[in-house]
Design a protein that fits this description.
Blueprint lengths: L2 E5 L2 E3 L5 E8 L8 E6 L5 E7 L7 E2 L7 E6 L4 E6 L8 E7 L2 E2 L3 E5 L2
Parallel strand pairs: 2-11
Antiparallel strand pairs: 1-3, 3-8, 4-5, 4-9, 5-6, 7-8, 9-10, 9-11
Length: about 110
């Protein structure tokens, strides 16, 4: 059974950092591009980052470029999202995705 489980979210102040993790199971993780997306309250799902199977070609939305870093550990079946200099507009539920499949998400709230 294919499963994705995100973790690492929380309530932080503006300027803080968080690292999200997504543990994958039930498929050959190392051959798939993985994505991070987010959904803010009342807004549509927003793609923010992807990483190819080998971890050599990260891509970012303009809204997070320079602040977020995606990485993966294929041996641990895990993809990460390091988030720095968080802003209130980063507040959202964050999901990792494989194709159209996503996990339950992890809430990130940035507020003073």
């Amino acid at each position: 059974q294919v499963q994705l489980v995100e973790s690492g979210g929380g309530l932080v102040q503006p300027g803080a950092s968080l690292r999200l993790s997504c543990a994958a199971s039930g498929f050959t993780f190392s051959v798939y591009t993985m994505n991070w997306v987010r959904q803010a309250p009342g807004k549509e799902l927003e793609w923010i980052s992807s990483l190819n199977s080998g971890g050599t070609d990260p891509k970012y939305a303009d809204s997070v470029k320079g602040r977020f870093t995606i990485s993966r550990d294929n041996a641990k079946f895990t993809v990460y999202l390091q988030m720095r200099n968080l802003k209130p507009e980063d507040t959202a539920v964050y999901y990792c995705m494989k194709g159209k499949l996503r996990g339950p998400g992890t809430q990130v709230t940035v507020s003073s």
